[in-house]
Design goal:
- The protein has about 350 residues and is an alpha/beta fold.
- It has two domains: about 15-250, Aspartate Aminotransferase, domain 2 (3-Layer(aba) Sandwich), CATH 3.40.640.10; about 250-340, Aspartate Aminotransferase, domain 1.
- The protein has 15 helices and eleven strands.
- It has helices at about 15-25, 35-50, 60-75, 85-90, 95, 115, 150-160, 175-180, 185, 215-230, 235-245, 250-270, 295, 300-305, 325-340; strands spanning about 55-60, 75-80, 100-105, 130-140, 165-170, 195-200, 210-215, 280, 285-290, 305-310, 315-320.
- The strands form two sheets. The chain has a seven-stranded mixed β-sheet with strand order 1-7-6-5-4-2-3, sandwiched between helices. Strands 8-9-11-10 form a four-stranded antiparallel β-sheet.
- It is globular and about 55 Å long.
- The model has no long low-confidence stretch (mean pLDDT about 95).
């Protein structure tokens, strides 16, 4: 219970995902993606993301991001991204180790603003400056903000105008789709994104990450980069079968909806404490960011098991998952009330 709202990574795998793994666990299949489950996934992904979609399963979200960026960087191009983006802060220096430079931008109300992107465009064709070549967006953002279709379209349009590639960090992309009530295809292919890091691990899978693109030539390139970055699983069918179960009967959307609704429920339950716990950003997906008084910030997150996000602002993060129940939220609120 103490870690209930720390992260959606802390949640369990969905029973249907585990059932799919168990059903796949018999007989013999070819390795490295040459199996029946991977064949099925190659067709399923086209139903979900569009007829041109190609999926390259990976082992981790970090691996997906680095493979995606490497495939677009051409060895010298840099990436425009939020200063607090996962690729800039939480990848343990993996982009730098791969030779990728991040050009950071301050967020505005938890999002990357198109005006700030343009500040880096003056560097283009200046041989003394790292050349902007990619714009990376996290959807939802690191602060749980969901970019609208229009916001994303504007960013992609600027990228295309300046011949930049686009990467979408979609570890929680399904939560954004559920929040907006749109398809994954609408959030990716229809907008013109080049490469997507798409994960299911945070939303009910056991271990299921991937890179998705809509360009066959780029997909072939990514396959070799995946191997170089040690992200090619031998028994790949056990990742593919998770994605197949994830997409079956729209399980992926229903799980994301549960996580998002749990966050809204939690926000409502926090209203009586708004003189001490003040929600900073709109709750649009499955996370809540709130400012605490200094005395509570020093002890409350550790006591109740959620994240201290920013010491300068006494900002904390509470995150729900597909498995968060109303009873668990009420229990958390009871403990919170007692602690206050």
């Amino acid at each position: 219970m103490s870690n209930l709202l720390a992260s959606d990574n802390y949640s369990i795998a969905h029973p249907l995902i585990l059932e799919a793994i168990n059903k796949t666990n018999h007989g013999y299949e070819k390795s490295y993606g040459n199996d029946s489950e991977s064949y099925i996934l190659n067709n399923n992904i086209k139903d979900i993301f569009g007829s041109k979609a190609v999926i390259i399963p990976t082992l981790t979200g970090t691996g997906s991001n680095i493979i995606s960026l490497t495939s677009l960087a051409d060895g010298y191009k840099s990436v425009i991204a939020l200063n607090l983006s996962h690729i800039n802060i939480d990848e343990g220096g993996a982009p730098e180790a791969a030779g990728i430079k991040i050009l950071p931008i301050d967020h505005r109300l938890g999002k990357l603003d198109i005006t700030d992107i343009k500040n880096y465009l003056n560097f283009i064709k200046d041989q003394h400056r790292s050349q902007p070549g990619i714009i990376s967006i996290t959807q939802p953002s690191e602060f749980g903000r969901v970019y609208s279709l229009n916001e994303l379209s504007d960013i992609v349009e600027v990228a295309k105008r300046y011949n930049l590639k686009t990467h979408l960090d979609g570890a929680r992309l399904t939560n954004a789709a559920a929040a907006l009530g749109v398809s994954l295809k609408s959030l990716t292919y229809d907008l013109g994104f080049d490469v997507i890091s798409f994960g299911a691990t945070k939303n009910g899978a056991l271990l299921a990450e991937s890179v998705i693109t809509f360009d066959d030539a780029l997909a072939e390139k990514i396959i070799y980069i995946r191997k170089q970055h040690m992200q090619l699983a031998s028994k790949l069918r056990f990742i593919s079968t998770q994605f197949n179960a994830y997409f079956k009967d729209d399980l992926y959307i229903s799980l994301a909806q549960k996580a998002n609704l749990a966050a809204i429920e939690l926000k409502v339950e926090l209203v009586p404490f708004d003189n001490q716990i003040r929600v900073k950003y709109p709750v649009e997906a499955n996370s809540i960011f709130a400012n605490l008084p200094s005395n509570l910030y020093a002890s409350l997150p550790d006591k109740l098991g959620f994240y201290q996000w920013d010491d300068s602002d006494n900002l904390v993060r509470l995150m729900t998952s597909w498995s968060t129940t109303s009873a668990e939220i009420k229990n958390f609120i009871a403990l919170l009330s007692k602690s206050l």
